[in-house]
Write a structure and sequence with these properties.
The chain is of the alpha+beta class. The chain has one domain: STM4215-like, CATH 3.30.2000. Strands 1, 2, 3, 4, 5, 6 and 7 form a seven-stranded mixed sheet that branches. A hairpin with a 3-residue loop joins strand 6 and strand 7. It is elongated and about 55 Å long. About 25% of the residues are buried.
């Protein structure tokens, strides 16, 4: 499959190298309660985009990149959280443009599918996510 055993392992290794991430851990299917933590969560999608006559296919793997961030009524702190995800989306786009991709066999691209948004908050922390995907060829 790749130098990592699974797609999710390749994605985790890839994002561990993102210079924008604060000192936090990257989980898989788990986002703890403390800021700043990150998680990569696979999403439901149709994996096959195009089936070829030779038996190969163009596939996709959709996932959410999520985080827990500090949150309050302080507008500047919340602007910083949104700014992180704008920069994160730009970083993913630039990496794709420069062909710096996760180590998945046949990988074609990595892209952002949605703007980041806050999906849960309490008085001290907020949870944000941005949806992404990779496309790859499989024989």
């Amino acid at each position: 499959m790749s130098e990592n055993n699974t797609i999710i392992e390749a994605l985790r290794a890839y994002f561990c190298q993102c210079p924008l991430l604060k000192e936090g851990k990257i989980g898989v299917d788990y986002l703890g309660p403390l800021a700043t933590e990150y998680s990569i969560n696979p999403e439901v999608c149709t994996p096959i985009i195009r089936q070829y006559t030779d038996g190969g296919s163009l596939r996709q793997y959709q996932f959410s990149f999520m985080s827990v961030e500090y949150y309050s009524s302080d507008v500047l702190a919340n602007i910083e959280n949104s700014g992180f995800y704008e920069a994160f989306a730009d970083w993913v786009e630039q990496q794709d443009k420069n062909a710096v991709l996760p180590t998945v066999d046949g990988i074609q691209s990595i892209e952002v599918l949605s703007s980041a948004y806050l999906f849960a908050a309490d008085e001290k922390t907020a949870r944000y996510l941005i949806q992404c995907r990779i496309t790859y060829l499989k024989n």
